[in-house]
Design a protein that fits this description.
This protein has 340 residues and is of the alpha/beta class. The chain folds into three domains: 158 residues, Rossmann fold; 46 residues; 120 residues, Up-down Bundle (Zinc Finger, Delta Prime, domain 3), CATH 1.20.272. It is built from 16 helices and five strands. The structure holds zinc ion.
Length: 340
């Protein structure tokens, strides 16, 4: 049976059977909000497809130990190819042309070649049309996994060729139970650092495998740091604390482009929670572990303010991928959001 994701027992059972029977559809769409484990899930499916022990009933699927599994899970397999916006707003026809040529090259390591298209709902109409023919009759060793937040942005012709699987955030109680069963450090942390443990559970919506990794303090510390900075920034922005607070906060962001991107994406996760809370107090949160605190922040501002700040943030994330000056990008964001 397919393992590694929490919940969705029936889905796991079906995926496992399809992988073992060699009947997994050649193209699948995974739809769900950012942070609901789409990447983790497709990586596990990819590992299961190539796992050298997949027919040994006593082993979990994927086994995570054989060379093929490890190469996929560590992102080192040449047969797992990830495509996406590459820092642009949309995925254009050039990306799909590359893919169409590349599919005819046989796999390197195993008998499967897997393409993951991130942000597939950002493919232009031309790109989607160009993809259609390949989706229809790919070579037998090919699998396409299209990840998106909203499959509604994909053409009907694409959706009719690939089943849509929806990923939802995993309920916190379920992650808590799973972690405590799997690793004794979870129960220890729950006692000694309840606030940190609550944060870890919320972060775990990004994938249960990652949550287990986070039990290692060295791995979780930088994550907590990013979350702390994002929380401070959003709080100061909402409370309109002005330049004297915002400018020193901006200097806490990294001057390294890659790290800055991660930091800004973490701020974007916080914003997403607040925007969702404007619509419903029960919205599933992927950033705030304290719902009351998030609702309190949310009540201080209008949804227009949140959208405005979010737009400035998106521009900054985009500008950061170009060769823009990192400091200037942050200042421009603060000015655009009218924070200073
Ligand atoms: Zn394996």
């Amino acid at each position: 049976m397919f393992t590694g994701i929490v919940g969705n027992h029936a889905l796991c059972q079906r995926l496992g059977n399809d992988i073992l029977d060699n009947t997994l559809p050649h193209a699948m769409i995974f739809e769900g909000p950012r942070g609901t484990g789409k990447h983790t899930l497709v990586r596990l499916i990819a590992a299961a497809l190539v796992c050298e022990r997949k027919n040994q009933a006593s082993e979990p699927l994927p086994c995570r130990c054989c060379l093929s599994c490890r190469k996929i899970l560590e992102g080192k397999s040449p047969d797992l190819i990830t495509l996406g916006t590459d820092g642009r707003v949309t995925i254009g026809v050039d990306t799909v042309r590359f893919l169409r040529e590349d599919v005819s090259i046989v796999p390197n390591d195993s008998d499967k070649k897997i393409y993951v298209i991130e942000d597939a709902d950002k493919m232009t109409v031309q790109a989607q049309n160009a993809l259609l023919l390949t989706l229809e009759e790919p070579p037998s060793y090919i699998h396409f996994f299209l990840l998106c937040e909203n499959a509604g942005f994909l053409l009907e012709t694409i959706r009719s060729r690939a089943p849509v699987l929806r990923t939802e955030p995993i309920p916190t109680e379920q992650i808590d139970r799973y972690l405590c069963e799997q690793d004794k450090r979870a129960a220890q942390m729950k006692l000694s650092d309840p606030k940190g443990y609550a944060e870890l559970l919320t972060s775990a919506r990004f994938g249960i495998g990652q949550a287990l990794d986070y039990l290692e303090p060295k791995i979780f510390a930088p994550v907590r740091q990013k979350r702390g900075l994002a929380a401070d920034f959003v709080c100061a922005a909402i409370k309109e604390e002005g330049a004297s607070v915002i400018l020193p906060l901006l200097s806490r962001f990294s001057s390294k482009r890659d790290l800055l991107r991660e930091q800004l994406l973490t701020v974007s996760d916080a914003m997403r929670d607040l925007i969702l809370l404007k619509k419903s107090d029960d919205a599933p949160l992927t950033f705030y572990s304290d719902r009351e605190e998030a609702i309190d922040l949310c009540d201080r501002v209008s949804i227009q303010f949140l959208y405005h700040l979010n737009d400035a943030l998106r521009c900054a994330i985009e500008e950061n991928t170009k060769n823009a000056n990192v400091r200037l990008t942050l200042i421009k964001m603060a000015i655009a959001a009218e924070l200073i």
